[in-house]
Amino acid sequence: MTPATSTTPPTAPAATRAEICVVACAETWRGDGEVLAATAGLVPALGARLARLTFSPGLLLTDGEAMLVAEPTGPGRIEGWLPYRKHLSLAARGKRHMMMGASQLDAHGNQNISCIGDWNRPARQLLGSRGAPSNTVNHPVSYWVPRHSTRVFTERVDMVSGVGHDRAAAAGPAAARFHELRRVVTDLAVLDFATPDRRMRLASVHPGVTVADVTERTGFPLVIPDEVPVTRTPTAEELRLIRDVLDPRATRDREVRA
Question: From CA 96, how far away is CA 91, in angstroms rounded?
Answer without folding.
Answer: 5
